[in-house]
Design a protein that fits this description.
It is a single chain. By secondary structure, the protein is an alpha/beta fold. 25% of the residues lie in helices and 16% in strands. The protein is built from 11 helices and 15 strands. The protein has an 8-stranded parallel β-barrel with strand order 2-3-4-7-8-9-10-11, surrounded by 6 helices. β7, α6 and β8 form a beta-alpha-beta unit. α4 packs parallel to α6 and α9 packs parallel to α11. The chain is globular and about 65 Å long. The N terminus and C terminus are likely disordered.
């Protein structure tokens, strides 16, 4: 349990009550350009105004969802963008920016590969030249090689959804409306998502980078968000492979942003960002870092294992109050470590890691004895509605958890701050400090309560000249009454 107070360059003081107001009673906050929520919408969930209203009430500025190649190319050379056209238009109409994950090879476009003793699949023809002239060298008048199936999918997706792209022309969208952030796969360091090994991933990344920038020179390419729990040296290994490419410097190492993930332990968010930064620095790289997945599921609310009575069954989970505390702390650690954007996983519980259609009533553990799937992942800021595909039997469906109010308060504060400070500082009880290259250091104390006393502290911007502007105090509550939020003990 982290018990020290952090002095940050720009964050919050937060005390959350247990009494909850319904979302309809909340005024929609200003969009926070540095915060996002995964699956505010997606092609796999209903695209409804009600769901968007719930997402917008958080104050998030970003949505994150996967664009499955297998969905848009169900048969070789047969393209169907219908579901994603509707999704992209809906995101834009609701004022959200979107980070899209390029992922999901169709069965007809994949081949098996062996990495060590492990067998995995990768896109077929991945090592074919990117361009039709038989090279990987971009040129304004060049065409994408149709025999490189991954390059073709990536290029088509970007050309369709970029500002001024195919969809924008068809729907009469503004020239500045479209998608600019493209993530190349998800968690390539985790076998559940990618079992093709480092060298194939580097090729996947290179092909995507060249195709994306060929379609839209202003796009930003994100290295697939790293899980950081199975292959801890994955980033270093992949950068070593990239460094052997003779054109890696010319094409900026084939990515613009690095994604990292962290779950369960708030301090781990600082660690994964800082470790990534140190690894990048070792290769002389200065890249933006996003924490584009972070969260912890609650065990004390359906569909979590509410009946669990020992720590072993609650492992890697938290109470709802701890979940809210984790959100604030994890975001704080992300920003002080230098992350550009923080994205929470996720808006609703949806189906989580379980199969579509998984459902059961609240119970006291007896369903587990019958061999059924007896719990799910309560990751959501909201509980599922009664008509959801999974976990639709909560006695209070479609209502927010305490983490919703934590996120909303965080968003309201960040919406008032500079969108991209030059450097964030931290001074903890250990005495460790990170310096700043700027002459002016905005400074905010961020603290969290571990008992019943609410966390309050004045926040004084600090300048090296010695002059101190007036202080400001930020305090948020989730309801009219109730105990303050307690910090995570997981």
């Amino acid at each position: 349990m982290v018990k020290h107070m952090l002095l940050l360059t720009c964050l919050i003081l937060l005390s959350l009550g247990g009494s909850l107001l319904p979302p309809a009673a909340l005024q929609e906050p200003t969009r926070a350009a540095r915060l996002g929520v995964a699956f505010i919408s997606s092609a796999q969930e209903p695209i409804t105004d009600a769901r968007y209203a719930a997402g917008l009430a958080t104050g998030a500025g970003w949505n994150r969802w996967p664009l499955y190649w297998s969905v848009v190319e169900p048969e070789p050379d047969v393209w169907d963008w219908t579901s994603y056209d509707r999704l992209v238009v809906a995101d834009l109409q609701h004022g959200l920016q979107t980070e899209v994950i390029l992922i999901g090879t169709p069965a007809a476009r994949e081949i098996e590969t062996r990495v060590g003793r492990q067998t995995g699949t990768v896109p077929a023809n991945l090592w074919e030249p990117v361009f039709a002239d038989g090279t990987d060298t971009p040129g304004r008048d060049k065409q994408i090689n149709p025999e490189n199936y991954w390059a073709t999918y990536v290029y088509r997706a970007v050309r369709r959804y970029m500002p001024g792209g195919v969809l924008g022309t068809l729907r009469g969208l503004g020239r500045d409306q479209g998608i600019r952030i493209w993530e190349v796969w998800n968690e390539p360091d985790y076998e559940l998502f990618w079992a093709g090994g480092v060298e194939h991933y580097v090729r996947l990344l290179k092909v995507a980078y060249l195709a994306i920038h060929h379609a839209d020179p202003e796009a930003r390419v994100m290295y697939g968000g790293l899980a950081n729990h199975q292959e801890v040296d994955w980033l270093e290994g992949s950068l070593s492979v990239i460094a052997e490419d003779p054109y890696h410097e010319q094409y900026d190492w084939y990515f613009d942003i690095l994604g990292v993930h962290n779950y369960t332990y708030a301090l781990g968010t600082w660690e994964v960002v800082d470790n990534a930064r140190q690894t990048l620095n070792a290769f002389g790289l200065h890249k933006a870092i996003w924490v584009n997945e972070s969260g912890v599921p609650a065990w004390d609310d359906y569909p979590g294992p509410t009946w669990a009575d020992d720590d072993d069954r609650r492992v890697l989970r938290a109470t709802m109050q701890e979940q809210a505390a984790f959100l604030v702390q994890s975001a704080a650690y992300a920003f002080i470590a230098g992350a550009e954007v923080y994205i929470w996983h996720q808006l609703y519980d949806d189906c989580g890691n379980q199969r579509g259609g998984t459902d059961f009533p609240p119970h006291a553990g007896e369903l587990c004895e019958e061999g059924f799937q007896c719990w799910g992942d309560a990751h959501g800021l909201y509980r599922n509605p009664a008509d959801a595909n999974c976990f639709r039997q909560h006695p209070e469906p479609n209502t927010p958890r305490p983490a919703f109010y934590a996120f909303q308060a965080l968003g309201r504060y960040l919406a008032r701050t500079a969108s991209r400070p030059s450097r964030w500082n931290i001074a903890a009880r250990t005495g460790w400090k990170r310096g700043s290259r700027s002459g002016v250091l905005p400074r905010t104390n961020a603290s969290w309560s571990y008992g019943t006393a609410p966390a309050r502290r004045s926040m004084l911007p600090y300048r090296r000249s010695g002059t101190a502007p007036r202080s400001t105090t930020f305090r948020a509550t989730a309801g009219r009454s109730g105990p303050p939020m307690q910090a995570s003990t997981i």
